[in-house]
Amino acid sequence: ADLVVETWDLQCECNGRDHRTEELSCQQLVVRRGQPFTITLHFSGRVYEEGVDKLAFNVETGPCPIEESGTKSHFAVSDFPEESGWSAVIQQQEGQSLSISLCSPPCARIGRYSLTLETCTGYQGTSCHLGDFVLLFNPWHPEDTVFLRDENERREYVLSQEGLIYQGSRDYITSTPWNFGQFEDEVLSICLELLDTNPKFLRDQNQDCSSRNDPVYIGRVVSAMINCNDEDRGVLAGRWDNQYEDGMSPMAWIGSVDILKKWKSFGCQPVKYGQCWVFAAVACTVMRCLGIPSRVVTNYHSAHDTNGNLIIDRYLSETGEEEQRSKDMIWNFHCWIESWMARPDLEPGYDGWQVLDPTPQQLAEGVFCCGPAPVKAIKEGNLQLKYDIPFVFAEVNADVVYWVVRGDGTQRKSTHSSVVGKNISTKSVGRDSREDITHNYKYPEGSEKEREVFAKAEHEQSSLRQEDEGLHLRIKLTEGANNGCDFDVLAVIDNNTDEERVCRLMLCARTASHNGTIGPQCGMKDLLNLSLAPREGKCVPLRILYEQYGENLTQDNLIKVVALLTEYQTGNVVLAVRDVYIQNPEIKIRILGEPMQQRKLVAEISLVNPLAVTLNNCVFVVEGPGLTSGQQIKELEEPMEPHAEAKFRLDFVPRQSGLHKLMVDFESDRLTGVKGYRNVIIAPQP
Questions:
Q1: Which candidate in 144, 208, 258, 357 is catalytic?
Q2: Is the model's pLDDT at 466 over the cut of 60?
Q3: Within the chain, which residue ranges are assigned CATH 2.60.40.10?
Q4: 464 pLDDT band (50/70/90 cuts)?
């Protein structure tokens, strides 16, 4: 009689635990490549007989699977499987049930597969479709190109669903919480859909699916698909002009899940709006979901060198007003991601962290994407390697030259210290602190190694990095600058010579955005005859008033202060620039009750309005992977009076044990993008 399969079990839950995909494996089987998974077959009528019955499997992925491109495989159950391909081995037989261990090669294509069983007795054969499963990259497998050795790093860069993204300014680094949520419902299927809407897939489906074994290829596709500047159906539209009324302000997002779900529900039309950290965070979610270790990185004073000469010219009037003459910009900070992978396509030595930058800035191969660029190649100045290294090299190494344009049109170079590529930051592994990774990108400033790298990159270091020996100028903050309050900045001037110096000091403050654009003036001082005795130091304060900056403060909360010191005798100009970050109020979060899995918890959330104006349309948004089911939105019924407190309670039932972040965002008409979070340790169910 024929061997007939009556029932089968893909053992989603058990395989999910083994493959660290349990949160994805409720409805479907999700496994990692190169690692065995077990399925159980139950036959009706008679038992499986070795030698009489033959069993084989078919796995197929993509719209038109073929064996040559690795998108289809046919393999028999055998005790001696081939080394290089898929394999199936019998684990145990109990009566009419049979457990079989299946395993993909560690270089298999990732994506959604269909699994079919073929049974054959004598000449009679039947086939039975067992279902679909998803195959992911496997950072735990030494032969996978994304293999990462350290278990704590794998936990942070693959499994952690929450993190911190660094923002603010170089002198005042802030962290904002982010829900990556790569294992939340629907996210995996949206990530796979993203691969299937990419232009390379639409042009040549076979070629695209057969390249999906390569994290370099996947990284390039994801980098291009997160933005929509190529007329593809990218996830996010970027906007930087503070006009966000027809969408969400980039500062309001608190996680990737909401963005990816909106993209899917809009029929894969771009979601409005993103800026660099939003593009980077969503790319990080997609890469972690697919199994590629990834982290969000922030570069302070990031140079955007459009003409590729590694020099960024800025022009100032004698009163410190900036003139926009070129498209070159210094971004206050810029975020990208690093993903961990081997680079067999390059000469040895470039495996490890690779920069991928999904923010649309530069066309590469006719597409807005950047990377993967090996961090090691950036550090060594090897600009000819793939992909897009000159662009990232400039972001961390370009030189800034400030020209002061006089009333008669003549220009004078000013001296100042080097400013680009500072405090490159990412979240530490396993804790909520900042790790400075600048040393991965560049040798110490002024070192012999740095000079060698610049020579190789044909980067003519301007000799202007040295400061004027005679006069030294810097801008200092007396205390934190809080939104709604007046504050002082100080110009600190030192005369390091043995002669008296007479100067003009211009101090000018303007509201600013993080990409370098500047708004109206909100404070200025012009001292025409400032005399400094030999070796004397002076402090000149500038008071910046809320009534002058409040109306024009952008959602980036930045004020750019420029100090210009002109020495009458020589005409030399010394410049100092500082970005002052205006701090938002704190959101207080108290957890009431004993945090335990599947038991109700209460969060008490409160915020004080720091402004002297009433806030309208006040909304709190709360989310946390494993804690809340999706986003919880609380709209306040009343406006918030000046200096009043808003307080509310939120009930939620944590689904998962362990450490989780409860994240809160507050929005209103005059105070936006206020973020807070609280770590909560949830005890497992007894």
A1: 357
A2: no
A3: 4-136, 471-581, 587-682
A4: very low
Q: Average pLDDT in the 206-231 region?
A: 88
Mean pLDDT, rounded, of the chain: 90
* Alpha-carbon gap, residue 171 to 581, rounded angstroms: 8
**Cα(433)–Cα(426) distance, rounded to whole angstroms?**
9
CA 174 to chain centre: 15
Place of tokens 């999706």: 630
Please identify which of the residues 19, 301, 304, 334 carries the catalytic annotation.
Answer: 334
Domain 587-682 has CATH 2.70.50.60: no
Q: Is there a catalytic annotation at residue 357?
A: yes
The torsion angles phi and psi of 677, rounded to 5 degrees, stand at -150, 160
**Strand-strand pairing, 329-341 and 422-427:** unpaired
Cα–Cα–Cα angle for 387, 390, 395, nearest 5°? 115
Question: 156 labelled as ligand-binding?
Answer: no
**Is position 450 annotated in a ligand binding site?**
yes
Tell me the two tokens of residue 490.
């100080």
Q: Does domain 471-581 have CATH number 1.10.1740.10?
A: no
Query: Hey, what's the torsion of the CAs at 572, 574, 575, 576, to 10 degrees?
Result: -170
Q: What's the CA angle centered on 525, arms 524 and 531, to 5 degrees?
A: 155
Residue 667's pLDDT band (cuts 50, 70, 90): very high
- CA-nearest of 675, 608, 587 to 162 is 675
Q: Which two tokens stand for residue 56?
A: 């084989």
Q: pLDDT of 146-198, one tens digit each? A: 999 999 999 999 999 999 999 999 989 999 999 999 999 899 999 999 999 98
Please identify, in words, the CATH class of the domain defined by 162-451.
alpha beta
Whether 459 sits among the annotated catalytic residues: the reply is no
Q: Is 192 helix (H, G, I), strand (E, B) or coil?
A: helix
Q: Is 245 annotated as a binding residue?
A: no
Annotation marks residue 204 as catalytic: no
**Residue 465 confidence (pLDDT):** 46
Q: Is the pLDDT of residue 290 over 60?
A: yes
399 in a labelled binding site: yes
Q: Where in the chain is the domain with CATH 3.90.260.10?
A: 162-451
Q: Which residue type, as a one-letter code, is found at position 665?
A: D
Residue 83's pLDDT is what? 75
Give the angle 72-76-80 at the CA atoms, nearest 5°: 115
Determine contact, residues 57/128, Cβ cutoff 8 Å. no
Q: Is the pLDDT of residue 390 over 70?
A: yes
**Average pLDDT, integer, range 494-509:** 92
Catalytic, out of 276, 289, 335, 369? 276
Amino acid at 672: T
What fold, for 4-136?
Answer: Immunoglobulin-like (2.60.40)
| Pairwise CA distance, residues 645 & 664, whole Å | 16
Q: Cβ of 19: how many Cβ atoms within 10 Å? A: 23
